[in-house]
Amino acid sequence: MSIDSTTFRDAMACVGAAVNIITTDGPAGRAGFTASAVCSVTDSPPTLLVCLNRSASVWPVFSNNQALCVNTLAAGQEGLSNLFGGKTPMEERFAAAGWQQGETGCPRLTGALASFDCHISQVVSVGTHDILFCQIVDIARHPTPEGLVWFDRRYHALPANLPTV
Q: Which of 11, 31, 58, 94 has its CA 20 to 30 A from that of 3?
C-alpha cells in the first residue's frame, strides 16, 4: 500500500512535538532553522537526532560545520520560531534574540527551556532528509513555567507541571 504525502502529513499533525531552533556556527558560517523533528536516541553516550532537508538553504552550512545546538523553545517564543522557519535573512533571525556561545561555538539561545550543544557524529540519508546523530557535549537549562509544542498545525503552550493522572 502506498501512502501519499498529504495523508502522511495530515496524520503527523496528530503527533505533538517540542519546537526547537537548531543553530550552528563555524568555518562555513552561522545559520539556524526551526525544527520539530528532534528526539533523543540514547543517554549513553547522550545523543539526539535532528532531521534536516537536504534542499534547505542551511544544509551546506550544517554539513560543513559538523556541530549544532538544539534550543528547545518556551511559550512566548513563537515569533522567533516563525523567523527561523521562514525565509528571513540569517542576520535578522539572530538579531531578534539574545545568544551565548556554546561549548562547540554554536549559538545557544538565552531563555530557551534547554540547549543541547552537540557534535554531529553520524549522518544517515533517508528520502529527502539527512538524519543528523548529534553527540551532546554540554547542556544548559533555563526552566520556565511553560514549554512550546507544535500540534494540529499550530503552537500550544504546555505547562511545566501538568497534573498526573
A: 58
Which tens digits make up the pLDDT trace of 95-123?
999 999 999 999 999 999 999 999 999 99
- How far apart (Å, rounded) are the C-alpha atoms in residues 21 and 36? 9
Place of cell 551546506: 60
Stretch 55-83: mean pLDDT: 97
Sorted by sequence, the CB contacts under 8 Å of residue 13 that are 6+ apart come out as 151, 152, 153
Ordered strands of the 67-72 beta sheet: 31-35, 20-24, 67-72, 114-126, 129-141, 46-53, 38-43
User: Are the CB atoms for 47 and 135 separated by under 8 Å?
Assistant: yes
* Distance, CA of 21 to CA of 26 (rounded, Å): 17
**143 prior amide bond cis, ω within 30:** no
pTM confidence score = 0.93
Q: Who has greater pLDDT, 12 or 19?
A: 19
Identify which of 31, 36, 64 has the alpha carbon closest to the alpha carbon of residue 49: 36
3 state DSSP class of 125: strand
- In the three-class reduction of DSSP (H, G, I as helix; E, B as strand; rest coil), residue 85 is classed as helix
Amino acid 143: pLDDT? 77
pLDDT above 70 (res 73): yes
Contact 63, 31 (CB under 8 A): no
